[in-house]
Design a protein that fits this description.
The protein is α/β, with parallel strands linked by helices. It contains 10 helices and 7 strands. It is 49% helix and 15% strand. 49% of the residues are buried. It binds nicotinamide-adenine-dinucleotide.
Amino acid sequence: MTKLRFQERTALVTGGASGIGRATALLLAAEGAAVAVIDRDEAGASATREAIEAAGGRAATFLCDVADSAEVVATVAAAEKALGPIDVLANVAGTADTAAIAGIEALEDERWNRVLAVNLSGPFYLCRALLPGMAARGRGAVVNVSSLAGRSKSAGGGPAYTSSKAGLLGLTRHLAFDYGPRGIRVNAICPGGVDTPMIRAGAANLAGTPEETEAFMRRISAYEFFMPIKRLSSPEEQAAAIAFLASDEASYINGVSLDINGGLFMA
Ligand SMILES: NC(=O)c1ccc[n+]([C@@H]2O[C@H](COP(=O)([O-])OP(=O)(O)OC[C@H]3O[C@@H](n4cnc5c(N)ncnc54)[C@H](O)[C@@H]3O)[C@@H](O)[C@H]2O)c1
């Protein structure tokens, strides 16, 4: 019989409406967690909650832009009121940055600030809201979703995305140092290419001109060519690593940046 690693635990998953976040929410719930599904996409978050409930699990959804500090504070309070103290935080929500392919001269302040706000400030706001409570209870696990971009540089995105994901690894290490003594582990995963709406529809949705879309698709093709495992990862393969790092099986793993890229980048 499979061991349920999250029985009597509560998890909060940002970006839970789609892709890696949805797969993570479903997996944690299947292994016993009550899951707070956080996203700015209400319909997608509701679909995740319905899938969890249909499988016999427990979940609640909260509409929130993780880049908004006040919204995060209110959302965390509402989630803990509904489901109880949070034991596991998975910071999965993120935004891409394909239009920056045009070069740094085309990267406006607004875009730079937005990418940093969602991908780096968002996880910071969530950690700031949740870590003190976890520390008071003496247990907790955080998994931040960085990227291959944070370990090297982005294949299909621009400097804002790379910088945000590298910054998230710094935040991970710093919080792992600060909160390890208080019973909390903070780790990160660094996915390579994952078959989610972000990578599939990213070019169409985010690139500003047909030339930028073409440049994005050329980079993605080159990326696939160099992968030792000759396919994109599934969201479930990333969720499996998030669940492992969040579980007691990883009780001595703290502050790591785990590459999950099929061997595309090895260091
Ligand atoms: N897909 C890839 O190839 C890949 C590779 C490396 C890292 N990542 C990272 O994985 C994470 C998940 O991406 P995915 O591929 O599952 O993408 P996705 O587009 O399927 O899901 C991202 C989710 O985050 C939500 N979101 C975005 N901005 C938000 C905000 N400001 N507030 C609240 N929710 C917000 C979206 O609504 C969506 O539900 C991201 O952090 C991304 O940077 C993805």
